[in-house]
Amino acid sequence: MENILSEYDKSPGIISPDFEKMDLHLPKKAVFAFLGEKRIERFAFARGGEKVGTFVSLTKDFPLWMIKADKEELCVLQAPAGASAANIVEGVLRENHVPCESCVTWSTDGFFRETKEKVKARRAEGCRVVDMECAALAACAAYRGKVFAQILFTADTLHDLSHEQRAWGKESRDKALLMGVKAAERL
Questions:
Q1: Which residues share a beta bridge with 62?
Q2: Residue 157: what are its φ and ψ, rounded to 5°?
Q3: CA-CA distance, 166 to 163, in Å (whole number)?
Q4: pLDDT of 143-180, one tens digit each?
Q5: First CA to last CA across the chain, in angstroms?
Q6: Distance separating alpha carbons of residues 84 and 18, to the nearest angstrom
Q7: Which of 74, 85, 108, 145 is most enclosed, with most CB atoms within 10 A?
Q8: What percent of the chain stands above pLDDT 70?
Q9: Cα separation of 181 and 144, whole Å?
Q10: What is the torsional sign of CA 179, 175, 131, 39?
Q11: DSSP of 65-79, one letter per residue?
Q12: pLDDT value at position 58?
């Protein structure tokens, strides 16, 4: 299996992270959550969070929340649609009695292109789960020299080569946010 990060060089990007010249003073650590805006807002308010700015994208404006976690301030926001960091995340999950396991992940942008043959081929390569955002964020973090880890929780399954929705992992969302904050504080 080829490492997709090997496709990128370290030359300066055409668009830099500060191209918008926003006057924001954010902490060095952030939790990007692929969860609903209202859930993130409730999570932030419950921790004394404050909206400190907005990340403007083509599809919508994403509120930037600053929260005081146990040890430091962190930025928490809805995400638009590495090894040492992964060890920290795994440690936080285990300490908080959240079942977890490391595994090979298939990353694809082909939500409606997952055929039975492709699923079987990825399983034969050792893949146990599919993710559609992690690879893009990992590649961006590697390119920018940033530490990156992602918590994946099951939203649905193709385990038996048929689609089972599993309520899109709704019961895990608040716990995933909390575990992300705890892990970010340790990075």
A1: 55
A2: -145, 150
A3: 9
A4: 888 888 777 766 555 556 665 555 556 677 788 888 88
A5: 28
A6: 26
A7: 74
A8: 71
A9: 21
A10: negative
A11: EEEE-SSSEEEEEEP
A12: 63
Q: Render pLDDT for 77-129 as a digit per residue (tens, 0 to 9).
A: 887 664 556 777 888 888 999 888 777 777 765 656 677 788 888 888 888 87
Give the residue among 37, 13, 22, 52 at the shortest CA–CA distance from 173.
37
**Calpha distance 42→40 (Å, rounded):** 5
* Pair of tokens at residue 154: 């099951």
- Please tell me the distance from the alpha carbon of residue 160 to that of residue 183, in angstroms, as a whole number: 32
Angstrom distances, CA of residue 52 to CA of 23, 44, 62, 64: 11, 12, 11, 6
Alpha-carbon distance of 180 to 182, in angstroms, equals: 5
- Nearest Cα to Cα of residue 46 among 64, 62, 68, 74: 68
Q: How many angstroms separate the CA atoms of 111 and 113, rounded?
A: 6
In 3D, which of 27, 28, 11, 4 has the Cα closest to residue 144? Answer: 11
